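Exercise 7b. Backbone tokens:
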């Protein structure tokens, strides 16, 4: 049985991935700010906090839990023109999306390395490649994730750990609830496959990436919808 850490496990894509992995017989250790409603192993943690993440890794290490992979699904979105984005929103986007991904990778990466194989999956957005108007700061946070993925994948390849990034188009979750229909249509019309995808499509791709048959993939930015 393989064990995976999933950040952002209490809602949206992170929750869906956790449930899919559990249904396939994997063990999931979820991380989220509020895990009170989760019915699987989980830890309350603000992904922006290096110290809180470190404390979780110590618990896992002390319990001698084998970690086979990390799925960095925690993320936030905000659609504002850059000049209209408040300071606290900018900080939240960068700290959650970029620093949260980096911190989790730095802290849980050594637990995966101990097994001499494993996977790390990060999350970006198709908006980075499309350079969408009104998403400048959000795109900046996710572009950082893509750059981190490419370089980090080379570092982790030395330990037989593959690092890739999924960059979806619009997915039917609460994350797009605040985006206008026109904005959604604009994104969809710029995709190769012009449709809004479901969380199940993301879960399907995660299943492919954690399968040993995909071990030749590394440092890839995989766009659901295509660009």
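Sequence design result:
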């Amino acid at each position: 049985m393989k064990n995976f850490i999933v950040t952002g496990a209490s809602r949206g894509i992170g929750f869906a991935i956790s449930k899919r992995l559990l249904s396939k017989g994997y063990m999931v250790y979820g991380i989220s700010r509020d895990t009170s409603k989760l019915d699987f192993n989980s830890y309350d943690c603000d992904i922006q906090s290096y110290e809180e993440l470190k404390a979780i890794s110590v618990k896992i290490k002390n319990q001698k839990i084998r970690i086979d992979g990390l799925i960095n699904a925690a993320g936030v979105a905000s659609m504002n023109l850059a000049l209209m984005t408040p300071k606290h929103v900018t900080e939240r986007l960068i700290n959650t999306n970029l620093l949260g991904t980096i911190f989790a990778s730095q802290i849980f990466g050594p637990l995966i390395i101990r097994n001499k194989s494993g996977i790390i999956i990060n999350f970006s957005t198709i908006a980075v490649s499309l350079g969408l108007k009104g998403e400048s700061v959000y795109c900046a946070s996710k572009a950082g994730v893509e750059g981190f993925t490419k370089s980090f994948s080379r570092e982790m390849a030395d330990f037989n750990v593959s690092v890739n990034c999924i960059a979806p188009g619009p997915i039917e979750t609460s994350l797009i609830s605040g985006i206008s229909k026109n904005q959604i249509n604009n994104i969809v019309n710029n995709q190769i496959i012009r449709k809004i995808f479901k969380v199940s499509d993301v879960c399907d791709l995660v299943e492919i990436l954690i399968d040993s048959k995909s071990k030749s993939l590394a440092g890839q930015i995989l766009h659901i919808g295509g660009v």
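Instructor comment: Helices lie at 12-23, 50-62, 87-113, 126-130, 136-157, 181-189, 199-210. The longest strand covers residues 161-168.
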